[in-house]
Amino acid sequence: MSEISKAIKQICEEKGLSEEDVINTIELALAAAYRKDFLDKSKPYNIRAKYDFATNQSKIFDVKTVVEDLTEEELEKIKLQEDGELLADEEVRKVNPKTDIEFSEAQKIDKKYKVGDEIITELEVPTAYGRMAAQTAKQVIIQKLREAEREAIYSEFKDKENEVVNAIVQRVEGRRVLIDIGKAVGFLPREEQILGEPYKTGARIKVFIKEVRLGSRGAEIILSRTSEEILKKIFYLEIPEIANGLVELKSIAREAGSRSKVAVLASTDRIDPVGACVGQKGARIQTIISELGGEKIDIIIWDEDPQVYIANALAPAKILDIKIKSEDEVIVRVASDQLSLAIGKHGQNVRLAARLTGWKIDIVEAGGESVVKTIEDAEVMSKEKNTSSELEDKESTEEEKEEKIKEQDVEKIEKETSESEEEETVEDVKANKKDKENVENVEAKEDEVQKDEKSVKENESEDLKKEEK
Length: 469
Fold this sequence. Notes:
By secondary structure, the protein is an alpha+beta fold.
């Protein structure tokens, strides 16, 4: 096997291309190189190259297609258009001398040619190409291989559209995340990300291929982490009973990153569908929850009876009774202590139940009026609660600010008091020191006075003794 044959096989393996695509690229490069160095510019040529992979030999041809002769009327129109007397956008049949040859000219070459035939003329093959020709061939090969690679990647992932694949987080660019999905890199836009989910470089995740389109730089692959298909795929991977068909996934309702409800049905009475999904000590469901970043999952049993199915979907709330109002709407009555459970946080439980079952659900308190009507009302309630919570947060924030200001004022007063006390203490110490010095001076003076008095007395006694003598 020649060196070029080995190189072709290596390129095919690395880039995932067929040998036919690579050989077509080489033929285009040879034709471009021949046009660069060996073509007579005064004559119109339509150069094609043919490369034999087995023998490593190439041939060069000039290819022209036989067309009908131009009529006198068509020739007149062409002349008028060239002179500017006819509109340029008016369609006029022309013969391209580079790629076409008129029937009358083809008959001069050989009588066997008919309209539509190709006249292939073999040209002399050069023994070697020049530096510029080789550079042109190189550029053509690189460009065409890139185009072929992009087309191959687009075709491969276009077939995988609406599928779930394993991927690795490559890097984060602003609000979007670049994901390595094998031979290509897809991007996860902000709206398709799970709220609050961290995307660390090198982390392994499952993504849903939402859309594949061909852009200027090749295949553009848009991924999603919020699709219900991801949840369905993980259930098929982690639960053998679902993969084997013993347990069927009937319906899924999901609010990505928060909560999902999954309706399942066993094919036989001997299998517990909920237990099969939960697994021993919750091992299976915990694996699914961790894969989705801690998203809570409710598994319920599907039932043909819509009343039973809706009651199951509203779990963990206990339902008193369900009345069918119309073909797509029901009224659910619950006890007052079960009302908050039936509605859920921000209306999430009833909203997911309505999407799961396909019914509009009205929640009614026992002995009272309708509290929540349909999925739309649940969403309005969610927005209202969000707004009220935002106001409460704002009020609490203002209160915290006021308390903080008060604390700062108290600290300031205490600091000033402590500073004044320290100043007073320093002055007291100084005063005490001065008093002590004064006392010591007084005591010293008293000692001197006593000494003087003693010396006076001694002098007087000596004088008396002298007088007596």
